[in-house]
Predict the structure.
Amino acid sequence: MQQRLYSVPEAVNEVPATYAPGTPEREELKKEIERARSVEADIPMIIGGKEIRTGNTVRIHPPHDLSHTLGHYHRGEAEHVTMAIDAALQARQSWASLPWRERAAVFLKAATLISGPYRSKINAATMLGQSKTVYQSEIDAVCELADFLRYNVQYMTEIFMHQPKSSPDAWNRMEQRPLEGFVFALSPFNFTAIAGNLPTAPAMMGNVVVWKPANTQIYAARIIMEVLLEAGLPEGVINLVFVGGPVAGDVVFSHREFAGIHYTGSTEVLGTIWKTIGDNLQVYRSYPRIVGETGGKDFIIAHASARPAQVATALSRGAFEYQGQKCSAASRAYISRSIWEEVKKHMLGQIGTFRTGGPEDFGNFITAVIDKPAFDKLTRVIDKVKKNDEVEIIAGGNYDSSKGYFIEPTVILTSDPCYFTMIHELFGPILSIYIFEDNQFEETLDLIDRTSVYGLTGAVFAKERNAINLASKKLINAAGNFYINDKPTGSVVGHQPFGGSRASGTNDKAGSILNLYRWVSPRTIKESFLPPEDYRYPHLDDDHT
Ligand code: NAD
């Protein structure tokens, strides 16, 4: 057998296609959207490589077009979670012992399928199922997902190459073992790329996985699974189940072989999960790895020296793209009094031109929020704000669920920096703004730092260098992704590794080498070439007389 030291293709970021009028990608995607809308998908769970249909089906509709049926998924029960765990454990030995290059090839091929023949399909599914505009879908479901897969393969090899020192009489080596047991991937609705990364990052390192996506993301999740199987992923390595979160949790967190959770979602759910794992610690073979990226209350602060048009654009895009349903979305802003009127003029001007409707029309910038619970929660917030005379709604404030869950991009002006919309994650198209006096910049930085429990993303806009330096220092723990003169959203794999601390998560930086280290358990091996044959050390000898 030939033995080689292989290198992998250097990871290069996938470039988003423009979908401008007249481009071939636009035509192809429009056709795929039409095709997807003309059929009703029947979506089974995938356990041990087999399609599992329970007959207990749940209808899927676009959040922006409630009367249309995209398809149905088959809902599972606790027994399907057990089946998935069994299938994973059965696949474990052969997957873990497969040479890493074979595993790498599966994920590199999956990236090429996503950015090539599956591009329109995964975009159409994300646009229809999660109500993303074409650009929001392209940067997520295609570019970020392909980037996760390609960069992680490269990081995997970097981890393997990192070896301890040796000496002429001993060779020291480090092996990276997959975790003993299975990993549970629990993904949110808002990013198809995250849904793909949560199961594949541990799998790449040799782990087997039970994956439960959010119900509202199943329509695109099934395409990820299809791509992975097409790319040659062996049966049972990743098992896709459609069950309620607590149903999955009950089975997974009481299983002896539970080895880790790769989670992205709300802060509250991670808290519940962490507590359960702690309570069950004696059940497990090892201490389970907990990787959880959670909520945010992301900020923009604009110093008096900032350019108003740049601040306004960061607010319009940072707060309202994907209807504010990004963990990184700007949802509280602090603007210096002397530039506020200009910022306001530009921002309201931009918001005034936003077009709203289904993402099938590529001219729409705003579409619907994800589901009824989100719509109800957000509209309750808007209604409460409307009743408060001390708070002003300067844009939006209306909503309508007759066709889909549409909420106008809403901007709240408050003179109370601790108003509840400045503190809590709302996860929708609602931006709260507080105006501070120009000479209160430093105090406002302290205010930002202590206002919310989160520490995910944040941005400072300023031309004046002392102001930038002060903000960077004072806000050191307020954001795991800190932006200078840029909006706080839109991190790119390999460029801005993503994650926050405090109540925003374990900050293991998705799409970085740090994350992959969590899915291996290193074994250090020392091999001596000349082992001693006498226990005695020189100092034990008698003094010479
Ligand atoms: P969510 O917490 O409602 O759901 C996340 C996942 O957990 C889903 O699969 C859900 O079914 C499951 N779940 C819910 N309750 C559960 C329980 N009791 N036990 C086990 N599983 C349970 O989150 P979501 O609405 O899908 O996503 C939005 C949230 O995710 C926001 O808070 C957002 O900030 C966060 N998010 C964070 C990041 C990040 O990188 N920090 C990225 C994306 C989203």
Q: What stands out?
A: The CA atoms of residues 380 and 427 lie 13 Å apart. The longest strand covers residues 170-178. Residues 298-484 form a domain with the Aldehyde Dehydrogenase; Chain A, domain 2 fold (CATH 3.40.309.10). DSSP finds 16 helices and 23 strands in the chain.
